[in-house]
């Protein structure tokens, strides 16, 4: 049987001072993610000529072909797209993304002189992919990004190509380019690293067994959506029951980490003290 926890509003409003703390914690999370990603790239993948997908993979491929520093390409390929589409992204996402990309680029520059921690390419591909993916996911989890290929694909829709297909095409071209330049075996290691990173990204973002489904019933759904995206980096799905249409009541659903429940409740109650919040175990 599915257990539920229902929360109702009561008591005085919380002080706004507490909301000065989360941005610093989120910045720290983005920085830690950027450092982990730097370690995965420079201490495992790059010494073996292994690349992955996205802007990170394209930067690595260009760095290996031109012998220029990886950090330079990470900076030059990501930030222009972020600036170009600045009007279509939330300001907090932009700030944390700039922080993440700067730390990511500087981290790879600092670690570049050091040799690989593993001499064999296969374990290097696995460990490097996991470290890179977990770092990317951690930055996403705290409201920033280290690779804006997906965001750029959402803006560069071309005819019948969806953003997912554009991103898949980019990744395929990068891996094919790695195969043509370094050979089939290196391309195979790159695919292994890409798959490892792809799966590792999900760990901090989705949270596994530590996440719950949250159902929020409120008359201020639009405001709550914006606040949850800003403070918790949580996207929500909106729907409305027929019987609530006349009353202007909507329902938001999203995933929430168990450690975030108190913060989520506080954020929602800032917008609507009369809202009804229900927590369900992950399906």
Automatic annotation (TrEMBL):
Primary residence: membrane
Signal peptide location: none
The keyword Cell membrane is assigned to this record: yes
Keyword list, A-Z: Cell membrane, Membrane, Transmembrane, Transmembrane helix
The organism's place on the tree of life at top rank: Bacteria
Pfam annotation, one family: YitT_membrane
Transmembrane segments: 20-39, 70-85, 91-112, 124-146, 166-195
KW Cell membrane (keyword) present: yes
Gene Ontology CC: one annotated term: plasma membrane
Record localization: Cell membrane
Ranges in coiled-coil conformation: none
Topology in membrane: Multi-pass membrane protein
Protein name: YitT family protein
Protein source organism: Paenibacillus mellifer
């Amino acid at each position: 049987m599915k257990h539920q926890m229902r929360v109702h509003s009561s008591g005085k409003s919380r002080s706004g001072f507490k909301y000065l703390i989360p941005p610093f914690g989120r910045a720290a999370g983005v920085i830690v993610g950027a450092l982990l990603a730097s370690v995965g790239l420079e201490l495992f993948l790059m010494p073996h000529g292994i690349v992955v997908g996205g802007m990170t993979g394209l930067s690595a491929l260009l760095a290996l072909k031109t012998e220029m520093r990886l950090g330079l390409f990470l900076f030059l390929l990501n930030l222009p797209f972020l600036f170009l589409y600045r009007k279509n992204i939330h300001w907090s996402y932009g700030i944390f993304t700039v922080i993440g990309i700067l730390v990511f680029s500087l981290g790879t520059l600092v670690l570049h002189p050091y040799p690989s921690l593993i001499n064999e390419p296969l374990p290097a591909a696995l460990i490097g992919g996991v470290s890179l993916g977990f770092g990317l996911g951690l930055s996403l989890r705290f409201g920033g990004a280290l690779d804006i290929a997906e965001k750029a694909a959402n803006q560069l829709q071309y005819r019948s190509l969806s953003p997912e297909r554009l991103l898949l095409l980019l990744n395929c071209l990068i891996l094919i380019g790695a195969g043509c330049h370094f050979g089939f075996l290196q391309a195979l290691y790159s695919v292994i690293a890409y798959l490892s990173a792809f799966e590792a990204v999900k760990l901090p973002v989705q949270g596994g067994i530590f996440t719950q489904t949250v159902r929020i019933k409120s008359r201020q759904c639009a405001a709550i959506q914006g606040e949850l995206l800003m403070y918790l980096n949580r996207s929500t799905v909106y729907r409305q029951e027929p019987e609530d249409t006349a009353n202007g009541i909507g329902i938001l659903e999203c995933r929430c980490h168990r450690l975030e429940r108190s913060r989520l409740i506080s954020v929602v109650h800032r917008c609507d003290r009369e809202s009804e919040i229900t927590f369900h175990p992950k399906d």
